[in-house]
Amino acid sequence: MSGIESGASVGFSQTCKSSWADPDLMSRVLRLNREARIVDDDLNDVDEGQDGEMMVRGPTVFRRYLNDSVATRETFHDGWMRTGDVLHFDREGFLYLTDRKKELIKYKGFQVAPSELEGILTSHPFVDEGVVCAKWDEQEGTEIPMAYVTLTHLAPKDPVGRRNAVSEIEHFVNRKVSSYKKLRGGVEILEEIPKTASGKILRRMMPVRLAMARAAKL
């Protein structure tokens, strides 16, 4: 079909419809009848350009989880719903999505957004898909970023070449980011990135995440 304009929007089932539209595929503007705040970990409003969690309220936002008072208390604060999404806003009030809060890697007091590193990872000609997640470093006593990748047809096939490719990919990313964002956990090759039937990456199924989950149960 021709002559039809399309656009993107982002929303939550808890708000009953999309919460903000995407007029230029980069910035987000809030829908009518919806209010938003960007807050820090103490639920204080952040300044322009600073990342924080988005909270929303409005007439279409749900009020509670049925028969789950714990989840309700964790989700709501003074009538505002915590979305779990990390965003920042500019001086014109446009909202920019950074990542999901639960996916942020906490390295020595810094917060590292996996999506930023993944964007750099997948720009390397050897990388088909890339996923960044947290790995626990016992010696440092903190989370560190590490990456899993699948390779393109341009990557070497022999074992030595693949090891060199891993080193090249790691240095490629580390040269482009601040010190605290470096892939201190290294890069590992997977034959396939685990995903849902709809194509959503299953971060919880990454080997390092499975190992951390098993350790937590011991």
Task: Characterize this entry briefly.
The protein has 218 residues and is α+β, with helices and mostly antiparallel strands. 19% of the residues lie in helices and 32% in strands.
If you had to describe this structure to a student in words, what would you say it looks like?
The protein is an alpha+beta fold. The protein has two domains: 8-98, Luciferase, domain 3; 104-217, GMP Synthetase, Chain A, domain 3. The protein is 19% helix and 32% strand. The protein is built from four helices and 13 strands. The protein has helices at residues 69-75, 114-121, 159-174, 207-217; strands spanning 8-11, 18-22, 29-30, 35-39, 52-57, 76-77, 80-89, 95-100, 105-107, 110-112, 127-137, 142-151, 187-189. Strands 4, 5, 6, 7 and 8 form a five-stranded antiparallel β-sheet that branches. Strands 1-2-3 form a three-stranded antiparallel β-sheet, with no helix packed on it. The relative contact order is 0.10. The model is unreliable at 20-29 (pLDDT under 50). GO terms for molecular function: CoA-ligase activity.
Look at the structure and name the CATH superfamily of the largest domain.
Answer: ANL, C-terminal domain
Order of helices and strands: EEEEEHEEEEEHEEHEH
Principal-axis shape equals: elongated
Low-pLDDT segments, ≥5 res: 20-29
Number of beta-strand segments: 13
Q: Average pLDDT, to the nearest integer?
A: 84
Helix content class: 10-25%
What is the count of distinct domains?
2
Radius of gyration: 20 Å
Instruction: Note the beta-strand portion.
Output: 25-35%
The profile of the biggest β sheet is:
5 strands, antiparallel
What distance lies between the first and last C-alpha atoms, to the nearest angstrom? Answer: 57 Å
CATH class of the largest domain: Alpha Beta
Q: In CATH terms, what is the architecture of the largest domain?
A: 2-Layer Sandwich
What is the name of the CATH topology of the largest domain? Answer: GMP Synthetase, Chain A, domain 3
Pfam families: AMP-binding_C
GO molecular function: CoA-ligase activity
Family: Belongs to the ATP-dependent AMP-binding enzyme family.
Keywords: Ligase
